What does this fold into?
Amino acid sequence: YVGWSTIEATMKGIGLVILITITSGVKSVPLVEAGGGLQIPTLEDSPTIAKKNKKKKKKPFSDVRAEKRQQQQQQPTSQSPERPARKGGVKWISVAVLFKFLLAFKSFAGPFFDPLGEPRLATESSIYFSFIAVLYVWLASVTTLTIIPHVSTHYNVITAAALFFYMGFISVCSLLAGRFLIRCAYYVWLLWKRGMIRTAFASSSKTLDSAKKLPVLVHWHRPFRRVCKSSWILSAVLCSFYTHCWSRSLAAFKVSRADGASFVCQGIFMPLVWLGFSSNNSGIEQEHTTCADEFSIWILWAASILGHLFYYLINEFNGLHHKGYIPSRKKSKSPLDNVLGLEISKSSSSMDSNSIQPSYSDDGFGNDEDDEHDERDAWPSISATIQQFKRVERPQGTLPMVSWYSQIVFSTGFDLLLSFHVFLGRFDARKMQSALIGKESKCSNQSHRGESPNPEGLFDFSDCDTSSDSGGFWFDFMSDCGDGFNSSYQVARLLAQPNLHVYTSSKATKSRMVKTLPRGKLLVIGGDLAYPDPTPENYEKRFFRTFEDALQPPPTFRRSHISIQKPAFPIQGYDGPCTFLIPGNHDWFDGLATYTRYILSRDWLGGWLMPQKTSYFCLKLPRNWWVLGFDLALDDDIDIEQFTFFASAAKQMQPHHNAIIVTHVPHWVLNEYENHAHDLNRENNLRELVRTHFRSKVRLRLAGDLHHYTRHMPVDSPGKKRKNSTDKPVLIVAGGGGAFAHPTHCFEEQISVGEDQYVRECAYPSQKVSKNLSWLNLWQFRWRNWRFDILWAVTYFGMASSFFPLCGVYDDYLNNNSSQSLGGLLLWTLRRVLYLMSQIFVSGRVSLFFMIFIIGLTFGFTDKSHLKWRVHLSWSVLHALAHISSALLVLLFVECMAEFVMKEGIIASQNAGNAQSLSIGLASSIFDEYNAHFSHVLEDFHIVGNSTIFQPSQGILQSCRTDERMYEKLSSAFSWLYREAPLLKTALAVFDLPGAIGSTHLEMCKVLCAGDSPCTWSNEFMIYQQIDRLTILKYLSAIGLYFVIFAVPIAGNVFGSWLALSLVVFNCQYDEGFSSLRMEHYKNWLKFKIDSNGDLEMFAIGLKRVPKHWKKDPQWVGHRKEGAVTAPSWSLKTPSKWVPWRKSKKFLPEVIDHLKIKAESS
It folds into this structure.
């Protein structure tokens, strides 16, 4: 929210300035022909430029104001005097033009307003986001301030810009000084309250000991970013009021409707007029007697600063700035908290603060917050205030979908490379598991239901009742979870419901019915538990957090507990759900270390018991069904230890038993896609195990990895009738447990698995929907992957860097397209782009390096597994040429615009065609306005203190002389800092990018084009070295910022278009194309039922839409205390903590596929 408020407030400030400029009677300045040419009015016409920068003498307050107004009225001005606003004076055509301008600007800056609905707290903490926000605001404001004085008579924006910088600097200093004084006063108050000052002279050692007990506070200047943000936003708002309400003809703020004052001006400045800050003198006509003095804007500033400091003072003395402070919204206890506190107090001393019901803070991970988070809690945002007012609790610390096109990709890729070539080739964690389990089994003789009766983890659930009210034994399957909170929690929440109501469609009646499915006794998870890599933080925030909110673990659960002998306590009579998990490829990136610590060494996943001790398992289910979970690691095969274990388990199976194989990767689909259908290296040991030990017992294969749902059935041959035999298993992919959705149209409908033929019977989402979703990359790639902008900025600028500056490019365009036709523009652009592209190979250095880099990057990024080598080469080269051409197009546009504004005299430059046309730079104009209006502000404050309005008594006058001398020194220091020292001048020089571009462009071109050397399309390296390096750096820095804001959106659209075409036309890039969309919808999981006849019935559940906003379920109470017995969470009717903010039918699950497998008769 804070990040959004920064951008929103600043953008609104700029928009308000432009809106007031356009809609308050502004008219364009006509171009007057003089001397056979067009003469554009410049800042020389401004009446304030002619003022002399003289130091003012100290005079009474009223005389200073009157003298200033008299000087302004006596100066000649070429501007027409302001007229009273007409009735109904809003020009709707101007409003429409402004609205169109804002929409165009949003197309560039749109991704930074609300990037994919991500939590704004996480976005705001990004340094990159803050830099981009400042860059956009900076360039938009400096461009507006440069152009407006040349197209309109509304000169107030320049004066407001001078006020903005001056007021911003003073605001930062004032807030820091005020905070420091408040902190000093608070320490003195603490010392006095505790009697330390009174006993200081009595016992210095005692005072020293007591001082150690003082509370640790957040640093008074933290967070410094918040101080700066508050200061500059305050300055922007007051500058908007100044621009809107200031009248240059009246030399005062408009208050009367006769002067054209709006309701805003009347509401703000009329109270100040009543307080005596009016502008009345004999030099002003009688009808304009009601005006507010220019000093009024500083009264508003002072009131705002004092209000900010007063609020800080209240929080300081209320203890809200203590490092251990927890705001009230986190200290509020629910019945669950009371129960948990009681249970923990009764437990052993080993119980610590890591127990159940963690307080997920705004950082999403426990209560360990840094200073800035404490300060943020002390200064609640508007949304948090409204939320607290409504008393609606919402989940805190939730994470968005993983941004794959960011720095995470590079770090994860490096870790993966390191794991592949350094660790995993020499060490396999699966070998250590069997050794440890074998050692532990000598001390364990327990044999309860759900526990392993043998040392290698075969779990027996065969005695579960299949004739219960639910109609049989139910278990669930899901895979690929642990991504964004919304999708992962919604799937976990629906899995936790004791009875799930789903929609079923009837093909006969074409109607929808509601069916109730019970929660499964078992939950099998098929890998990829957290994305993008298996770090403890990702496991806690993206995986465990969602399941714990969906189904609470017992009160005795501790996060720091390491289970040496699983389970940690006897489970005799336990009737709750259990879960079993195999690792996926993402879980193996660290060699299975995090999986071992959090899965194999913990007892609970939310309210699901985790009894497994190895990364593979064997489950014996009722009615002769078995579930075999294999760990294929990263080499796509089982190891010898697993082979031995499952071969031993197969001896307990009878010929009529049925087996379900669970692996993570569906090689039956990927082998066909990657043209590895006959690759015998994958699953070689697994195929041998099935062929020799399980034979025809395998009836079903389940896998994840692909984040969609598909079901393949065996057939005799393509186009012929399906077989209904038991020797070929059904193949199902169900990887929609929470990760981003994958397409279904990129994979073949008919596949070959060895010598067997399969055909796809069902797909979710459908092929039509999948193709339609692929087109979203056309316009949403950059919006959803704005962190990728830094790569585009560096690459595009690198490809164009060898050609800066293009001296005379605008004249070249005029010579080749004198008629200014569209066809001539396109032809000239095409010819120059091709010529520049050839010059990269001839004389380019840095550009050549980046050109080769982009060609190699696109070639390696293109998916070659699904394309022929000729198509792969052609498609990757076309992609690279599109990026190279786009970079050169942006280069031509930026350089043409730079020379255009210099040629027309808009920015400070010496026009070659008209030597007498000399424009005044923006920085000089702002500094002159500062000297004319605001350089004496501190002196005016001192004058006000000695004026008759605040005249002290004679007795106090003598005692105030010391304070007066101190204030005079402070005023002199500030005056020297801003008028003599280069602080303000340096800031304005850096701010004035167009002026820097104009001066350095002319200086560089003067050297490059000396002696009639060719300097437009190529620069000789020896001549280029004659230019001062500081000049080159200054020019590239200034022009590079404008280059980047145009290049980055174009690069994102080019890459998004390439992804969309690859998905739709070539059916490739399925992972890259849909990971960019980060789509949290179209989730799926499976529910199985084993009935009394031993038949296996499958219900594939799909979620078309996932909620994005949550609130606390009012019926949720956690662990309900009933007498002396605590009801477990899995026995509650409402076990989940959060529910969707609003109910909608689109959030309801539906049955997308149904299958029934007949049991093998004995």
About this structure: The chain has a mean pLDDT of 74. Residues 156-193 form the longest helix (38 residues). The chain is about 45% helix and 10% strand. The longest strand covers residues 756-764.
